[in-house]
Each structure stands twice: as structure tokens, then as C-alpha cells.
């Protein structure tokens, strides 16, 4: 029986099964089985084999990387060429773009790499089309822009979300608050710090047994679902922010546009007429959470033209030094910082100090 047939069979059984407390255990088992089969689909067993075809992924440059995902002919290439001035082939038939086309924009001092990925078709997660490679590149992005046609948006949105979910990409979500640690002996140690609506010890045991894990500490710190637990056990999920870009708004009325503006994480634009690009760029900047640090040589004014851009969560003085050169940290004595992260301007700080956006820093070496 092929993998796809097995997956279809399990999905059919899940659709047949009623959801209630008595069947929760059974559904959890099925979900775990499904997740395992999906993973085998993405990373086929057996190594070696032929070459991987022409290079599909692109070298990572700049401070952040954004992928455009969408069905064929929704205007991804037009959007890229109008934003970045890169010519990605545009035509009125489907599947014009066949490999990844990179482009770079400078925005607020940061270099942002844009990737125009080929169109995704339904069933990409099962290996149809170039879907598998497209989504593999999408996993490496810091932000995903799902480009939708305004005339047929919501059906498409669901389909693309399903394809990305099937590949272990979680959009606009935080990693579930679950502590999971394998052990050598001692059985399953299960603690929940708040009431659980779905998971109990039996369900957790059966899901872990499916992964042949019989000794582990599991701590649930929020109301979690079986899917959350599977995500943590699999451990290969990526959590990426996402913006829905509704293209071709030149074809609808103002009243419809007002309704569209109320959808969360959503920006309506017209790639062809370059409408609303500034709003899109501003929204991209918000979602990327980049931190700009300006450098100040001793006895000179700060250089506001070329900031050092750090990703969110890695903004200590030490990270700043490593971004410039890895030998800097060895000679580091202390730093003087001006800006919102310190109480006094300037303030002497050590290498663990967390910097904030648009701080000015001066390093003092030993």
C-alpha cells in the first residue's frame, strides 16, 4: 500500500469518527500516525538516489528573508518586480516562474531578500508539482507572504494553509507551551498545570507509544490539543509569521475593499498599479521584528546610514559583536549605549545587555 493510500485511509477514518470524550484517545492515535506518515512523505526513506535536480534554494543574503507563496498567476512575479526592480518573467499563462527568483529591497536601512517561489498547486504536500521544493524553501524564510487573488481569495487561503501545515509550517502561531524530555527509564511522567479539555494521561501515553517513546517527562503549561503534543514530539515544526496579500484590488469596488480591510493579517494591494505598497512594506517591517543598531566611532557622530540589523530575540551586545566579526568578542571590554534600552545616556554595559531598536553603541576594547 502506498503512503498516499495509507494517508487517505487514516483521513477517511478520522472524518468518520465522532468527536467526543470516548473517542478522543482513538483520534489522538490516528493524528500521531498521520503525522508520522506525512513526515515520511517529506523525507523519503533510503538515501543516495539520483541528483536533486537543478538548484532550487537560493543563498541567504541580507538581514531577513521573505517568501512569496501562492497559486500560479496571482501576481507574485509582478509584485516582486515592482517592489525590488528584479525582472521575474511575467506572462498571462499559469506556471511562468519555474524556479526561485531572488530580489533584494532596502527598507529602513535593512537589506531584505525577497523570493518569488513557483506557484503551488493543491496536493503539493503529497509531492505534486514542484510543491515539495517550493515549501522546503518557504521553511527557511523569516516571513511568508501568501499572495491571493482578490476575486477568489478564501478558498485559496484555506488550501495554501493546508499545504503549508502539512509540511510542518505553522503560520502566525507561537510554539505550544509543552515541556517534553525523553528519559531512559521511569515511564511517562505527566503533569498539567491547568485543566486540559482534550489531553489526559491515557491519550498522551498512546500518542507517545506510536513514536515508540515509553519513558518521558511531559509538562503541559496551557490547554493543549493532541496536535500541539505531536508538533512538540516531532520537533521539526517551524513557526513563521505570515501576511496575506490580496492582489488585483483594481478589479473590485470600494465597499468590498472596506470589508477586506477587516480580515486580520491582511493587506490589499494592486501589484500592477503599485497601489498600497507603502502599507505592505510597513506591515512587513512590523512582522519581521528587526532591531537596528547604529555604531558610533570614538569622538565622531553616530553613523545613521548603515545600521547593524539584528533578528528579534538575538539582540544582546554579544550578538551585535558576533554579527560584525567573531573575534571582536575576545577583545571586548565594555560598551557605551545611548537609546531606549538604558537608563542613562550613555551607559556602560556588559556583553549581556539587551539592545532595543535604534540604539547607538560604542565598543571599548581591552
What does this protein structure show overall?
With 366 residues, the protein is α/β, with parallel strands linked by helices. It folds into three domains: 100 residues, no CATH class; 159 residues, Rossmann fold; 75 residues, Roll (Ubiquitin-like (UB roll)). 32% of the residues lie in helices and 24% in strands. The chain has eleven helices and 16 strands. It has a six-stranded mixed beta sheet, with helices on both faces. A five-stranded mixed beta sheet has the order 13-12-16-14-15. A three-stranded mixed beta sheet has the order 6-8-7, with helices on one face. A hairpin with a 2-residue loop joins β2 and β3. α2 runs parallel beside α6, α2 runs parallel beside α7 and α6 runs parallel beside α7. The longest helix has 22 residues. It is globular. It starts with a helix and ends with a strand. InterPro entries: Beta-grasp_dom_sf, DRG, G_OBG, GTP-bd, GTP-binding_2, GTP1-OBG_CS, P-loop_NTPase, Small_GTP-bd. Keywords: Cytoplasm, GTP-binding, Hydrolase, Magnesium, Metal-binding, Nucleotide-binding, Nucleus.
Task: Give the number of helices.
Answer: 11
Residues in β-strands, percent: 15-25%
Write the CATH fold name of the largest domain.
Rossmann fold
**Strand order in space, largest sheet:** 2-3-1-4-10-11
CATH class of the largest domain: Alpha Beta
**Averaged pLDDT:** 77
Largest sheet composition:
6 strands, mixed
Tell me the CATH architecture of the largest domain. Answer: 3-Layer(aba) Sandwich
Q: How many separate domains make up the residues? A: 3
Number of strands: 16
Question: Shape, please?
Answer: globular
Radius of gyration: 24 Å
Enumerate the spans where pLDDT stays under 50 for 5 or more consecutive residues.
46-54
CATH superfamily of the largest domain: P-loop containing nucleotide triphosphate hydrolases
Distance between the termini: 67 Å
Could you spell the SSE succession in H and E letters? HHEHEEHEHEEEHEHEEHEHEEHHEEE
Helix-strand category = alpha/beta
**Helical content (DSSP H or I, runs of 4+):** 25-40%
Keywords: Cytoplasm, GTP-binding, Hydrolase, Magnesium, Metal-binding, Nucleotide-binding, Nucleus
Pfam families: MMR_HSR1, MMR_HSR1_Xtn, TGS
Main location: cytoplasm
Protein name: Developmentally-regulated GTP-binding protein 1
